[in-house]
Amino acid sequence: MVTALYLIRHGETEGSEIKRYKGSIDVPLSEKGIEQIKKVAVFIKEHLRLESSAKYQSYLREIHGKKSAEARKRGSAKGFQTSELLASGESLRRPDFRTSRLAAVYTSNLSRAVKSAEIIAMPYKLKPIQMKELRERSFGIWEGMSFTEIKERYPEEFSAWAGNPLKYSPIEGESTVEVEKRVMKAVNRILKKHKGDEIAIVSHGGVSRIILCRLLGIPLENIFRIEQDYAAVNIIEFWDKYPVVKLINGAVNV
Question: How many CB atoms lie within 10 A of CB 176?
């Protein structure tokens, strides 16, 4: 049984021409951001239609699929071939790909993520499920400040944070460990509930970076080595043994 997760960053926000930490500030999507997410919704729908069956034919099924390995052993003992096992339903169940769809859409409760999630959920007549645990990091006294302002007022603190975001944190803001704990607790709860489903999580750049680092086994001090543009799409499949990241920072063109 394979679970597919579409991990999406919200679209561009109003005032994004100036780089600043918005964090937990509620900033709406810009018109461009809305158009970006509409394209993401089309991409996901097309991916579900064309690509969902691929994982059931992929070599990854042979590497990670515990159930299929057990089925092959039983089949070998009985003199069955792989094709016969597939036909008999002994391996991974194949859904009706004509009706492949998102089973659920989860989102941060900040409006830029909620609006993005609503657009993505619309083709499936789903109501996004808001979770405050998926919110962006609180940047403390840096929230609302531009990068230039922070560098001018807090040069040493900003340099330390940029160099090692695991050891250092924004002044009076959340630490990376604090964010990781609340975010991964929510993600694990979602995955446990949706085994074998296709699901989406719409959140923020910092949240997506932490999730990807955890799933890839990358130390959290390296979160800034993963880019997450506005409306970035990441695709992760969860197999019996461990997750496989299929796409990182997939971009739409607007």
Answer: 22
CA distances to 42, 74, 95, 243 from 205, in Å:
21, 45, 32, 20
Q: Looking at residue 65, what is its pLDDT?
A: 58
pTM, whole model, 2 decimals? 0.84
Structure tokens at 101: 């769809």
Count the neighbouring beta carbons within 10 Å of the beta carbon of residue 53.
13
Tokens coding 170: 């924004």
Amino acid identity for residue 107 in this structure? T
Instruction: Give the per-residue pLDDT at 100.
Output: 80
Query: Across the 254 residues of the chain, what is the mean pLDDT of every consecutive 10-residue run?
Result: 94 92 95 97 92 58 57 40 34 47 97 98 98 98 96 97 96 97 98 96 98 97 97 94 92 72
